[in-house]
Structures are given as structure tokens and as C-alpha cells.
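ingest -> validate -> predict -> emit
validate: passed (alphabet ok, no gaps, 395 aa)
predict: started
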Amino acid sequence: MLSKKVSQITPSYTIGISTKVKALKQEGKTIVDLSIGEPDFFIPEKATERGVEAFHTNQTKYDLVPGLITLREAIVEKLKSENGVLYTPSDIVVSSGAKHAITNSLLAILDQGDEVILPVPYWTSYPEMIKICGGVPVLLQTNKTDQFKMTLESLKAHHTTKTKMLFINNPSNPTGAVYTKEELIPIVNYCIDNGIYILSDEIYERICYTDSFTSIPSISEAAKANTILINGLSKSAAMTGLRIGYTASSPEIAKAIATIQGHLVSHPSLASQWAGVGALTESKTEIDQMVAVYKSRREALIKQLNTMKGIEYITPDGAFYLYLNIGSIKEHVAFEGAFSLKVCDDLLNDYNLAVVPGIAFGTDDYIRLSYATELSLVQEGLKRIETYLQSKLNA
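emit:
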């Protein structure tokens, strides 16, 4: 008999979409796939060179559980120079992707039944990770008028005696919203004053289109002590398949995370870690060029969205997603269960377009599409969405 945990986990919507896309492609159909949050760039040249060199020099044996000291030193320097926060290598634990870093952190902090406040919309795996690790996700509904960012008042309303942690994803997947320093300070101080850990997932922080990005641990020494910072190289350096993420935290938490990781996986692939060194120390120009491309795509897509009828959107200040409100057609669509799932099925089956239903992120009137792919494909995707919307509104 399977564990009760398995029965409590919601299957991944994105995996379901991917399975359908593969099946349609096998039937010979050409699908415009905007569902995947994966950069359409190859990893930086120096990252590749460092990874290949690791094999040629036989860097293939066991190493330190928290990660290569060279990589952790590079992460410390990155956090100092780019984010304005000081850590030591012993505060860093390198993991097999940011997902793994989050899971390690939850295992280190949560006891059975502890509550974790999770703003909606959330990245699809967050509530399931919390449940797997014994916690209880407490969903905090946000408003589109606030760009789906939580406020201090909404945080206070969801705080109970069981609250152990607050999740913050900044910039946000799926909305691309970015918290300002002024918005973060009262939230962070409230958590400090009330003994609530902050798990700050900043995996998209390098892909930010605002004038400045505020990393939560940089706000104050107390904020740093109270926060587990999550980051990695999948998005910023297009290293999705190499699986390098990391945590930066207090020495006590870092030691706990390393202890857990030591029993579960030891450490990530050494070749991937050496590629990470190359990405962090020798690839700034290439990463800047990637971000510039994402920004130019965003500008072109916003212009197109502004000409479309029957649709509202959140202007993304970071990441590479568009979160589109398609609630205008809700009364014109026959559906059972999730409205956004029906819309996505229609788009895939009738328009050969793959996007992600908003129900996967906790908001059923929305769909998410990624512009981490060729601009012309995203523009074509928006045209197909507009055609679909108009067919419903004019029916």
C-alpha cells in the first residue's frame, strides 16, 4: 500500500500538458509549445569549458556534501557583489537544483503540522513540497490590483500560532511581479518580530527589468538570520538540465541542510558544479545578453497584448512569463472542474498551442505562457489565443 503522503499530492499539471504535447507531436502535429519555463539558450561557453575540463582532469570522485569550495566561494562573491549581502562558504549548500534546495530547507525547518503561508498565485510545486515535508500550506489570496503581491495586512490575517514559515517568490513565477524594497521591509520585519522563517525563492532575480532588485537577506542582519535564500543557475545561466541550485542561510540552518543532503544525495554532479563556477565567474556578459533578449521580447509582447480584446495581463517586471486573465469568456465556455484547464485543452486540441492553466498556480481565471522561446512563436501563440477568445465572445 502506498503512503498517505502520495494520496495528498496533486499531480503536476505541467507534466500532464507535456505528455499531451508529446502525444500530439507523435501524431504529426506541429505544436507551438509555450508551456515550458526553460531558456532557449545554451549554457555559457565558459560554463561548458569548465564542465568538460572536470571530466578531462578526472574530477569525478566524491567531494564535500555542501558543494565544491570553489563554487561556494563564487556564490559568496556573487551574493556580495550583485545582491549586497555577506555570507561565508560555510553558509552555502549547493544542491541538485533549486527544487532540491527548497525541499532540503523545508525538511530542516518544518515539523509535522507546521503551517507555511503561501501567497497565491504560487509556483505549482510549492504546496506539494510543503505537504511532502509534513507542513500545511496556508493559501494567502492576493489581488491583481497589487500585481498579486502580498501586503502586510494580508500576512497578519493568515498568521496563526502554528505559522512556521512564509514563502516569497521574487520575481514571481507565474506573474513576473517584483517586490520593491519598500514593500518587503514591513513584511520582513513582521516575520522577524513573530519568529516566522522566510523562504525567499529568488531563482529569477537575475532576470529582472526594474532599476534594482532587493534580495531579502540584504535588508538587515536580522533579515539575513531569519531567511533561507534559494537561488540557482537553471534560469540565469540556462543550466536547467545540469541541476545546480543553492541555499544561503544562517550557519545553524546551513549545517542542518547539509546533514539532510548528506543522507539523501551527498552532493550534486561535480561536472555540473564546475560548470557553475564557469557561469558565475566568467559568463556575466553572456548572461546579460540573455536578459537583454528577454526584455526585448517582453516589450514586443506587451505592445501586442495592448491591441488584443478580451484579455487582461500582469506586466512582468521579471522572469519570462505572461500571466493572462481570460475570465472574460468564462460564461461562454462549457466546462466541468477547472475553467483554465478546459481553456488550455481547447487551445491545445483546436489551435495546436500549449500553455499552462492558471489552476496550476491557484488562480483559475488565468493562463501562463513562457517567452523563453523564439519571439515569433510567442507572437503566433498570442494570435491564436486572441482568435480563440473572439470565437467565444462572438458566439
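The first strand starts at residue 32 and ends at 33.
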